[in-house]
Amino acid sequence: MNEDVLAAMGRVPRHLFMDSGFVNFSYTDKAFPIAAGQTISQPYTVAFQTELLEVKKHLKVLEIGTGSGYQTAVLLELGARVYTIERQRQLFLDAQKTLGPLNYKPIFFYGDGYVGLPAYKPFDRILITAAAPEIPQLLLNQLAVGGILVVPEGDKFGQKMVRVVREQEDHFERSEHGHFSFVPLLRGKNL
Ligand code: SAH
Q1: I need a surface site. Which of 6, 59, 66, 75 has the fewest CB within 10 A?
Q2: What does pTM read for this prediction?
């Protein structure tokens, strides 16, 4: 794993992102339940997606699925400017309460990540932290030329990690990077 990514993860106190019932397991390499039936990603998975994303200082990153905010914090530790969207209102609120006091300052949005943030495009990087049956075209449109999008593609029966590089305006290079298990990317938002 990339050393900058591991160092960034080492600076984020994962126990502050966990539900109280699981706090003793914060530094085990597993996913855990958070509010609204969602999960905080496994640290290995966070490291894997972050490495594929090639995050660098000052890059503009769109994250779909704020969840606990843990992955958001890792992106911020790497010096990215982060726009993060969550469709579950409770998680959108909780993540702000967690990240604020730690001085992590992403730009939070409550909405449907399927449509992204067209008003703020283009993004140098787009990270989807929930499984999509197919890569949303609206998000590909919001990727800068030279930009990278990372998404687990598939359903509950199987997902593979996909990386898309927008080589030119109309040319996207796709590569696959092994099997994972994420909660689904869902349409619309949830009160
Ligand atoms: N990176 C987060 C992962 C949380 S799980 C963490 O480590 O804590 C994935 C999250 O994606 C869930 O919180 C889920 O509510 C959210 N999600 C699913 N579909 C979405 C959509 N269309 N728009 C925004 N968020 C979505």
Answers
A1: 6
A2: 0.98
